[in-house]
Design brief:
By secondary structure, the protein is mainly beta. Helices cover about 10% and strands about 35% of the residues.
Length: about 130
């Protein structure tokens, strides 16, 4: 598999802008409206691992591809992604809305009492929870 998508790659490909404080030791955190990343002019990121964590709250019809699985989303979903598992989000219509945040391990580590983010159930590889 190719190298993980970096935060720099994400910002350059999706936003065409790079924050000044991206490389500071305090870690990085940012929140985005999903609505700004869908539609006919959206830049699609390929199925890949990313070197950052992501939490997405999405509403709409879409497919979430991760590892060797696909989950069809019809309505609302809360998705957690970690740097160990490759993923891709595929909107199935133009009626998508929600928010997502991206952050580095350094940012999250400041608030954890555990060994690291992968120790948290929502970021543990192989974990999933879905309801009908």
């Amino acid at each position: 598999m190719s190298k993980p998508l970096t935060l720099e790659d994400f910002y350059q490909q999706k936003i065409h802008w790079l924050p000044d404080n991206l490389k500071q030791d305090i870690g990085h955190f940012n929140v985005f409206r999903l609505d700004d990343f869908v539609g006919p002019n959206a830049c699609h990121l390929p199925y890949s691992r990313k070197d950052f964590y992501k939490i997405t709250l999405v509403s709409g019809r879409s497919n979430y591809h991760f590892a060797d699985k696909t989950i069809e989303i019809r309505g609302n979903a809360l998705l957690f992604a970690n740097p160990m598992v490759p993923y891709d989000w595929e909107p199935l219509d133009d009626h998508q809305s929600g928010y997502f945040c991206i952050f580095t391990e350094a940012f999250l580590q400041r608030y954890l009492q555990t060994a690291g983010p992968l120790e948290l159930p929502m970021f543990r590889p192989g974990g999933s929870r879905s309801t009908p």
